[in-house]
## 1
Amino acid sequence: MIQRGIATFGLDTGKCPPWLFERMVKLGRSMIEAVVAEEGADEFVKRIGDPVWFQSLGTVLAFDWNASGLTTILTAALKEAIRGEENNLGIYICGGKGKTSRRTPEEINNWGDKLGLEDEKVNSLAYNSKMAAKVDSALIQDGFQIYHHAFFFTDSGAWTVVQQGMNAGEGSARRYHWHSASAKDLINEPHSGIASQLKIDNVLNMTAGESGKNRQISTELVSQNFGTLMKDIKILRKYFTPYSQMAEIAAGQQRLKFMNLENIEFNYHPVVKEDFSKSRYLEKILWELCDRKPENYEKLLAMEGVGPKTIRALALVAEIIYGAKPSYEDPARYSFAHGGKDATPYPVDTETYDQTIEKLKSYVGKIKK
């Protein structure tokens, strides 16, 4: 069973020494072979989608358990470990850190050509990779900038995404896990886990189930003509002011239907710093959306040019004018590295803990001497 949760790691500077990386590659290769022999390629990719198991594997391979580098170095080591053996193992790893992450679709297409996969299957894999990156940068606005994206897939089409963002101001990293079995809906709670050192206040989380109404109205907003949408945007431009003024305006504006303004410190609203006064690019994207009229929120997000600001603008119109409040709760769930033994935020899941230990022990035991 894939567990959702938080693992702890701060931003890591410096490089992995060659002597360690070489050994991580060797042990990683043996671990992959053992898992695939025991449970198959799909199960290995599924386990990579589990943030606890991924973290544990990195620790087994002797990398610092609480460093952001575990994500990037472990992924690189696994990718190197299977180089030349991908077809035998049935596992393919694309992407990585920085510029390498941006070549993920190209790598997926290259593997599609080598394997003779149908275009539909290759396009689907590339689309899932692209959308995972877009969701975690635009729909979850938590202050972490994505800089690492890795895409694991198998012959059968099972896939996992492991991507990481950094928050330089907090000196922290956050890792996002996806797995095809738990991401049937790419927009509504698609993650198998989100690993983070911090829980952030006031995260605009458009993937939450509670954001469903806001997503619906956001889609409806761009199904109308551009002029009608811009009337709503102009209201925000005129009245999106500090809390005290906003409350007074709301009382006299029948069009503003959000009824709980008096209970909100509006100065601390997650998008209160948004500048709608001068944004020609935003208007261009909104015009294109209204022209194409995407039939659902996923297609809205998938359109080229749609990013965090477009999502914020539509979410804010849907919330302030139409009363559809999105979720502002950080999607990170729990910590197994902070607390736990003292039941903070809840007791250690000893059953899962023991299962992970026994599984890793069994894999290590099957490694060829």
Note: The first helix runs from residue 18 to 39.
## 2
Amino acid sequence: MEVELSLICREHASVSVVIPCFRCADSIVRAVESIASQTLLPLEVILVDDCSRDGTVNVLFELQARYGASWLKVCALPDNGGPGTARNAGWKLAQGKYVAFLDSDDSWHPQKIELQYTWMVEHPDVILTSHFVTMSDGCQKNIVGDIAPPLRVSRQQLLISNRFPTSTVMVQRNIEQRFADGQRYCEDYRLWLHVCFFVGECYRFDQALAYNYKAVYGATGLSGRLWEMEKGELASYWSLYRAGGISFWGVTLWSSLSFVKFMRRVLLVHFFARAQ
């Protein structure tokens, strides 16, 4: 009750935070605590259980009891549809002017919402902003004084690589585009491409305001399934082509470059595996 009252009394930003949850009982508490520690609180947090069936949903309801149902909402999906489907479900429930995404095994710098939201309110024509992410939260340092304004990410820059890790993105809630239901890999990249090409300008801050706790390309888990991720990236390019964003020669070029990068990643993973 004390935690809930303290949240009610603090200033809130018109931001809905959406977290897809799948078998994340060991990490979701850290993620939610990083949101509750924000210098400017979001309007609400929406936890979407993607049919975990392992007790995760019980942890989510425990968090709801701790922080209050008016601020932390739990949505339990009947079937497992992947992170994109779960994010869409949370997005549909969102009430804030902006939606920010956080993965259940990541966390945020305490000033993340304050810095990102304030800038977006001052620049209402910007559709999406992002920032850098770094490993672990280490020793979090307060950001004092003015920060460098974010830089615009061009279409070509985004085609070269995904500049927007999902846990760094804040986007206007009322855009029509959504994550591709059923696509389990690079579904975020596909959405950012469509936003950048068909909706409006996207910017990225130079600060690292999010933290992850596992290597981007590992030997296990979702990050280790390099071929599945490559297929998801290729599907994103072809989706953009079918929507009229790039030409046939363009999708051929970017797909070829993507495959070259994929082969390089595979070689690096095998190299480090043998070195260990």
Note: Residues 222-275 form one domain.
